[in-house]
Amino acid sequence: MRSSAHQIELFQMAYRLRSARKAALALNVSQPSISRAVSEPAE
């Protein structure tokens, strides 16, 4: 299964900042979208 480039970008930012909230602010997306991308299985 493969992850999309967008999912990888969201995960990397959340990992780097150690926070889904901070990653969401940095990427200008909602916090739930970060959480959803990180928790979804790869397609």
How would you sum up this structure, described in words?
This protein has three helices and no strands. The radius of gyration is 9 Å and the shape is globular. The protein has one domain. Helix 1 packs across helix 2 and helix 2 (20-27) packs across helix 3 (31-39). With 43 residues, the protein is an all-alpha fold. Helix content is 70%, strand content 0%. Keywords: Plasmid. GO terms for molecular function: DNA-binding transcription factor activity. Pfam families: HTH_1 (PF00126). This is LysR family transcriptional regulator. Residues 1-40 form the HTH lysR-type domain.
> What is the general shape?
globular
Query: Over the alpha carbons, how many angstroms does the gyration radius reach?
Result: 9 Å
Give a short account of the largest sheet.
none
Give a count of the beta strands, DSSP E runs of length 2 or more. 0
